[in-house]
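Hey,
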Amino acid sequence: MSGPHERLVSQLAQIKELSGLSLRALARDAGLSSSSLSRYLTGRLVPPWEAVVALCRVVHRDPRPLRPLWAEADKAGTAPGPRRNDLPADLFDFTGRERETARVEELLRTAGAVVIDGMAGVGKTSLAVHVAHRMAGAYPDGGLYLDLQGFTPGQEPLDPPTALGRLLGALDITHPPAGEQERAALWRSELSRRRALVVLDNAADADRVRPLLPGAGKSAVLVTSRNRLVSLDGVPPVSLTPLADDDAARLFGTVAGVALTGEDEVGQVLDRCGGLPLALRMAGARLRHRPGWTVGVLAERLRDSPARFDAAFGMSLRQLDDPDRRVFRLLGLLPGADFDTGVVAALTGLPPGRCADALDELVDAHLVLESSPGRFRMHDLIRQYAADLAAEEEPASGTAQRRVLDHYRERAETYDRMLPSPHRPAPAPGDPQRAMAWFDLEYVNLIAAFDLAVRLGADEVAVALPQALRVWFFRHRGTDDQVRLLDGAAAAAGRLGRDTERAALLADLGYALAAAGRLGEALAAYREADRSGPADGLAATLALRTGFAHRDLGEARTARESFRRAADLFERAGNRAGHAQALAFDAFVTLRLGQPAQAAGLARAALDRADGPARITGLVTLGVALAHDGNDAEALRHLHEALDLAERNRLQHQQAWCHTYLAVALRETGSPERALEHHRTALALLEPLHEVQLEIECRQAYETTLAAHTAGEG
């Protein structure tokens, strides 16, 4: 190791070894997150000096000699990643709020957090986004934005685990831990090494915000809510009231694009808009689009409306022609957070070009916001207004919503077919990166579409969407929605009388539950799938997965029975690869049962039938079995071949598994120091994956090696 960063990593590794603690235990004792500590130990991140001090304190070591080395490493740093910016666009006509803007900025600098509260339509989100853009230079690691859906019509507020999952996903963490506390700790850890500004918009209550706060560090959070979040300790509030008349008149004049005359008429307009920026923008847009009108005419029209929001919204709506008004009403029926022209075309049955023209008119009238090029959203109040109008005036609203569901299903299935997957021989023509980007962009809307399908009884869509998301879910296994969607899809398949499809969905449900560590529930799902009459190939897969669950529960004999049943079913079906996999895992649990010679025979039989990465399990099992019998050189050769396969195919979880059993073999052959190096590598590889069961297995092996090493030194 030559550079200061590498030398610092070496020193930190010595501290960890001296502590005798597992990575998580050391992180806990030092007051760090295990994910951050993993990055420090693997050289992916230079730790803050406070973290070095905390680690030294755990082992009662003076940190001062490390200060010069740390300073060199910190100065060299690591290459910065691209700045992320998820913020909506700032309003070109943002007006007033000078005092509130200054107060919010001051609190962000001093307290690192602030809540903007106030009534609907008063401009909370506009102020939050405006401040976030103004302060972008102070937060070089980016601006994150999340709508918590606290008051969004037709949507349930996001619960903290789901919100944390989406925030971590924005930081490219695709396998977050399952529990809320673990996610919150990881979130705080990630923000502690960044200088980012997080906007949490539309919060329902303090309980849903508290786990999302960044904690210590240089990141900051800006929350908006209609409610006063008085129980949110350490987060000072800034309450918005309607704009004062001078600011309201300035905003109205800016949007209208006219010099205001006639104080009485202007006052009447301001009174009907109630000082609410949302209403003022709509009224101003109405006047701008009617050059023959005066402010007096506008005031008279506003007086004709029975209520304040009807005055603003209704007038903006009446400026449109009938087809555009229909588009607006139907937009209130859309599931999800935002939309594009294609979704609107499906909703309305109009050509995309006509929908694009209508959306332009709605944007000009301030009824729709173009949040980014080609993507649109609506303020919650306007969305509710549109939905209320649709309920009164659109008798075929269910038909329109079903067209939207079909649109999302067809698009999802099309893009899914472009993604490589073990479930299909070859993907369809297309760009897999573009396909995955589409799923990333539309994920929230797809989940909302599934929920709408369940409410409408659209079982065909409810069955299809989770299957189209299968590859996306595999790459984002921490996604909370997966279990809920698969459970609902299996129920829908049952209602349709599709028992074979229901069995496949239940098998996927069991796999998702097992990946989350919910092994008892996984076994129940597998049993239900088996009762549903699975196809022959699926029956073998179910037996294999049942074996995995029993293995992870420590029930080796029951697991071996399942693996042998799977081997028999795969062999009868002529599935050579499946047969090899079942034999390999039979060999592995046989080894666990203390029968290395029989395990070696089964492993060799598996290797005779396997190709490529499918050989990994057999090679690992054979290597460990031979190490038990003292065939050191041959054992290590097989284990290194397995590791090479895992590395060449970029299978990170398999790499961790291979490193773990290389360590076990080295321990058996009397090389505990080298064994510990492989254990540490395995745990570092596992840290970002959050593979619960695999991590338990690897940690148990590590603790055994560590105990053996300590005993040998004693």
